[in-house]
Amino acid sequence: MMQAQNSMITKTLTGIRGFDEITGGGLPRNRSTLLVGGPGCGKTVFALQTLVNGAQRKKEAGIFVAFEESAAHIVENAGTFGWDLPALVRKKLFFMDARLSPDVVKAGEFDLIGMLQLLEAKAEEIHATRIVFDGIDVLLSLLDDATAERREIYRIRDWLTRTGLTGIITQKSGGAEVDHRYGFLQFMVDCVVILRHQVVNGSAFRNLRVMKYRGSGFSGDEFPISVTREGMQLTNRGPTELTYEVTDQRISSGLPRLDNMLQGGYYRGSNVLVSGSPGTAKSTLSGLFAAAACVRGERTLYVSFDEGAAQIVRNLQSVGIRFAPHLKSGLLKMYSTRTRGPNVEDQYFALRAQVRQHNPSCVVIDPLSALSTKLSHVASADAAQQFLDFLKGEGITVVNTSLMDGLSTDEATATGISTIADTWIHLSYVVQDGERNRALTIVKSRGTGHSNQVRELTLSDEGVTLTDVFVAQGKVLMGVARWEWEQEEQATSKRSETAMDLKRLHLQLSQAEAAARMEVVRTEMEARSAEMGVLDLATGSQSKLIATDRAVLRKMRHADDDAGAIVKRSRTSRRATRKHVKKGAA
Amino acid sequence: MARILTPSEEVQLRLYVAGHAPNSVRAIANARSICDEHYTLGYGLEVVDLMMHPLRALADGIVVTPTLVRLSPQPTLRIIGNLSDRPQILLALGAGA
């Protein structure tokens, strides 16, 4: 049955970004739509924009019947939008001034039969398909008769059905959403759109809700709207299913050591959150990223809040980050705006417009949390998230900074942002020995391995560097303490080097001593053996003597030849012994 | 009751109506009756039917029907409705004279 109804209803696009999405195609064609809202909600803008879009994009002519303001006035007011209304008025749009001048006298009941007749004639003449009745209550209230008013509105409805025009009727509402006087209108028409204006914490918000849509599904939530130069737009809640294109491509963060910590840099198309207290060099880190992107030749948009572009350029220059050439070449565009300017919705729409205009592949938002004062409102938190969503959908790599004091407190304030961030880098101060030093930590990084180490971030004229921090005696050392520690380390190593040299010398000395001692011992050995030789000799000659004596004795006693052989051998032995002694003395 | 007749003046009136719609039919009758009664020296009353000449009415800036326009004497005067509120009409025409 639903299917059958759907096929009966045809829709006509309003061209209002977001509205056509939530209604699945715009307003019901050839039917009547009621726009309800208080003053300043944008009823007229909504209605007029529908006509303008129809005329511009689909070449459909339209009629605007103005009961409240003069037609000239409406055309003039619409001049703030880039619609070129005067040109359209000549060709496709017809404005009917349906105000009654104040000095018109009312004498009896009247009706709209004649007006509808002439509108029909006009519609035929210009082939109009859309018609707006803006502020018809002004006229009808002159009837001063509820029944007569109702009768005339039914007359319009029937007329719309008969002529096949797509009609928009605007209706004012006071504080209450439903004005009982015209309450029946909402039952009568096919589609009811409610526009609301509210002020929360001093910031104005406008939103839109589709209350009724006969024969069609629709999203009945309140959607924030904003009116910018391009007209009214509506913040859709983003695609319900997250389907981003992902890439493995890495791009540099602008800081080589940080790239190493992230094992290759940021993923292209990812969202990087840099959080930290004031002055922790968040902007510097963002600046590095932007400059690196420009050096790669990528278009980059730098959005800053409450800080002028010139000032940022100068400040970054002081740490060796140069924007000037990129600004000149047009690769880099800076967009500075105030936090407390227009309402959040308008700001995000302005940002979107900037993104569309510049078409960057890298975006820096510094800081996103400047809007945190307004983040209390659900709509604006939504807006921030949707903006990031939008950038992600476009495949743009985003570095946004967020003002946070500590890791524990921020989770509540920036939940939306920190959950959407793919890489979260936290910068903090470490106060130690009377100084503040910057420490960098990677809180999370989706899909990349990352270092768990704290690094010290140092800024100087030459640029930005990341330094290892020293951990000594259970303490992280930074700044001067780290320098001292480094000096101390150097001194210690020098000392130990000297000590080693000394030791080596000592050892060489003892080695030399030992060698000398060994020589002495050897010499002594020789001396001893020489002595022993002498001793042998002495003992040998003595026994030879004895033998000789014996031989002599035997000779004298005429012994046999055997004794002669012994004498001969002893002589040889004595000669050898003598020789030995001579050598030992040398 | 204001006197609305100035014999020397020429009275020119135009009544815009929408075919045979009840208010229009009544307006024509009421207009004739009032004029006959008060403009005894003569008047001109032109009835324009929007059903026949819609674009003419558009050019004349007519918003609702019926609308009675006094073209002369000056200033131009517009009265809307079926002209059933006689005292109101007489007051208006008299004040404008």
Give keywords.
heterodimer; A: alpha/beta; nine-stranded mixed sheet; 19 helices; 25 strands; B: 97 residues; alpha+beta; four-stranded mixed sheet; 23% strand; globular
Question: Can you offer a commentary on this structure?
Answer:
The complex is a heterodimer of chains A (586) and B (97). Chain A is built from 19 helices and 25 strands. Chain A has 586 residues and is an alpha/beta fold. The termini of chain A are far apart. Mean pLDDT of chain A is 79; it is low at 1-7 and 406-413. Chain B has 97 residues and is of the alpha+beta class. Chain B is built from three helices and four strands; from the N terminus they run E-H-E-H-E-E-H. Chain B has a four-stranded mixed β-sheet with strand order 2-1-3-4, with helices on one face. The mean pLDDT of chain B is 82. The chains are: A alpha/beta (586), B alpha+beta (97). Chains A and B meet through strand 6 and helix 6 of A and helix 1, helix 2, strand 4 and helix 3 of B. Strand 6 (105-106) of chain A pairs parallel with strand 4 (77-80) of chain B, so a sheet runs across the interface.
Describe this structure in a few short sentences.
Chain A is 45% helix and 24% strand. Chain A is an alpha/beta fold. A nine-stranded mixed sheet of chain A has the order 5-4-7-8-3-9-10-11-12, with helices on both faces. Chain A has a nine-stranded mixed sheet with strand order 17-16-18-19-15-20-21-22-23, with helices on both faces. A two-stranded antiparallel sheet of chain A has the order 1-2.
Please describe the topology of this protein.
The complex is a heterodimer of chains A (586) and B (97).
Chain A: H1 2-8, E1 11-12, H2 19-22, E2 27-28, E3 32-37, H3 43-57, E4 61-66, H4 71-77, H5 85-91, E5 93-97, E6 105-106, H6 113-126, E7 128-134, H7 136-140, H8 146-163, E8 166-172, H9 183-188, E9 191-200, E10 203-213, E11 222-228, E12 231-234, E13 250-251, H10 256-261, E14 266-267, E15 271-276, H11 282-295, E16 300-305, H12 309-317, H13 324-329, E17 332-337, H14 344-358, E18 362-366, H15 378-393, E19 397-403, H16 407-413, H17 415-420, E20 423-432, E21 435-445, E22 455-460, E23 463-468, E24 470-472, E25 475-477, H18 479-557, H19 562-585
Chain B: E1 12-17, H1 22-38, E2 44-49, H2 54-59, E3 67-72, E4 77-80, H3 86-96
Parallel strand pairs in B: 1-2
Antiparallel strand pairs in B: 1-3, 3-4
